[in-house]
Write a structure and sequence with these properties.
This protein has three helices and no strands. The protein has 106 residues and is an all-alpha fold.
Amino acid sequence: MTVTSIVPVSVANISASQMSSNEIASTQIAGAAPNAIFDTLLDHLQNVNTQLVNTDKAVQQLASGETDNLHQVMISMEQTRLAFDLVLQVRNKVMDAYQEIMRMQV
């Protein structure tokens, strides 16, 4: 695993042909304000939470007989599962990065 520079790199100083797509993405992230990154993460977590609540309501309505649209409920459940799996994988990557940083010797 390589560690990129913490200091933001100006993309104007480096031609795009010299940078890989991963380097371009890390440069864009490094140049972003930390608050913006955490705000985006919080927005995604709130969206997943809203999906979970809405799917739970749809399942309860299906179980109580208020709706008979089984296909839509199953689609909603699968979308929510995928969104939750994505959040879980992002959390795992963040934890791995944190543990890697903690293992570094100063």
